[in-house]
Write a structure and sequence with these properties.
0% strand, mainly alpha, 5 helices
Length: 126
């Protein structure tokens, strides 16, 4: 069973934001993959993940895990983009607080979870 906040988010971006069925399919898979990752790190609840308890390090760890598994940089970027969009939605809905959600470390705005390490290297060196 999918997390209710994820389902609500997917419904919102599909209807109010008119995201394509292809994007919705990819975001659903990306968020399911992140949900599995987060649940294995202690953020799983009875029927939903505890997004408000997550730190930016959870998202960074997810990105690092994808790099370790040698995923294509474009795939990693898309998955992180899905997370940024999702956490912006959670912030707007009041499901996470500015400094407590997955994007909300003190040095990071909640609406902008970390970029992938690959993207950061590209911008610093080129």
């Amino acid at each position: 069973m999918a997390d209710p906040l994820i389902e609500k988010f997917l419904l919102y971006i599909g209807t109010a934001k008119n995201y394509s069925p292809h994007t919705l399919k990819n975001y659903r898979g990306d968020l399911a993959q992140f949900s599995h990752y987060a649940a294995t790190r202690g953020f799983g609840g009875e029927n939903a993940l505890r997004f408000a308890e997550m730190e930016a390090a959870t998202v960074r760890g997810f990105g690092a895990d994808m790099h370790r598994r040698k995923m294509e940089p474009s795939t990693v970027e898309r998955k992180l983009s899905a997370l940024r969009t999702f956490f912006r939605y959670l912030l707007r809905e009041g499901a996470v607080k500015k400094k407590s959600g997955a994007g909300g470390a003190d040095s990071q705005k909640a609406e902008d979870p970390p970029q992938s390490a690959e993207r950061g290297r590209r911008f610093r060196h080129g």
